[in-house]
Each structure stands twice: as C-alpha cells, then as structure tokens.
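B., you asked whether I could sanity-check this one before it goes into the benchmark set. Here's the sequence:
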Amino acid sequence: MPLSPSDTPADRLLAVRLSIARAAALAGRDAQDIELIAVSKTHDADAIRPLLQAGQRHFGENRVQEAQAKWPALKAEWPDARLHLVGQLQSNKAADAVALFDAIHSLDRPSLADALAKATSAQGRTPELHVQVNIGEEAQKGGCAIGDLSALLARCAALALPVAGLMAVPPADTEAAPYFALLAKLARDHGLGRLSMGMSGDYETAVMLGATAVRVGTALFGAR
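And here's what the prediction gave me:
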C-alpha cells in the first residue's frame, strides 16, 4: 500500500491492522491470534514513539547493538512493549539478546542453541524462540536447512530449550505462498504452533496460510 505524505503513523497502523483482519476473515481465522511486529530496524526512537503512542506494542530489530542503543529507554516509557529479534544472531551476542529481547526469531544452528541455552540458564529468562528455516534453500540467506530441521529441534529439546515455532523469509521476487505453505507444513509435522512469516509485500498471504506473527516495516514506517 503506497504511503501518502499526509499519512500519520496511526493511519498506517490502522490500515495494516484492517488488512490483517480482512485476510484473517477470508481464512476463517481470528485476527486477534496474529501478532503484528513493527520492524523498526534503522529507525530511531523518534520514529518509533508515534507507533507506541498509537497502541502498537510488538517491534522487531535486526541487530542486538542497535536495539541496545534505543530500546531500554523506550521500554522504560512503555513497559508492556515486546521486542523481537528478527535478524541473524551471532553466538557471542546470545547473552545480550536473551537479556533484551522477548522473542528471538533466528535460531538456526546447534552452536547458537548451545549459546542460548547457556544464556537462558544463567539469566533465568527464556525469550520465545523460533527456528529460522532457509525455506528457499538460498546460499546467501541464514536459516537452518530444511533437511537439518529435525536434528536442530532435537538438539534444542536435549538442551531443554523450548521452541515455539518456525520463521522464514521466502526468496525475493517470487510467489511467496508455496513457501509459506511449506513452512506451515513443517511446523505441523514437528508439532509447533507458531509461524513467523510475511512482510510488507506479502503479509496478507501469510495470514491466510497460517501466520501467527507478521513482520511489517515499510508499510508502517515507509521506505528506508
């Protein structure tokens, strides 16, 4: 949906929420079951605050260091804000991520599972975890290979590290629906109830195919 210069953050938020509700209705779903994550990466606190004021509470960041610079103060103002890490996570940043984020969507390898298990045990808190799947088998993208998913989930279980669901980013410039459907099947096959899939260009399709969280940036903040 193109952004008008007169659009306010509240207008854009309402438009996206209405689109989610329409897609949910078409699929016979309750829109309340779908989390809208506003992807605030590269946006400063002044750009984020109007969405918080309009009632948005779930936000996504790509980098631990960037989130550390702006979110502690924002969460002090809005203690009920929930922060999601939606970008790749280095194992040496696992402890920092566990301390700051309420959900991590990019668990994709055994070494990171080990680091997160150590951090959650030490800190006594466990963010909601999603395993990121390289759903399009793209060499340049992060994510667990489809063929390695069962072994990674078994590793997490052995570490007593709870996994809530799966996350994926389909290949660009192609129809996303088959990839969303595949991710939903993988989640069902492994008994996982959460699906983090869909971005500004395809979140309505993701909702119709079972997304429980959509990660929307441009439709809320505008082009970077």
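One thing to flag: Residues 9-26 form the longest helix (18 residues). Otherwise nothing jumped out at me.
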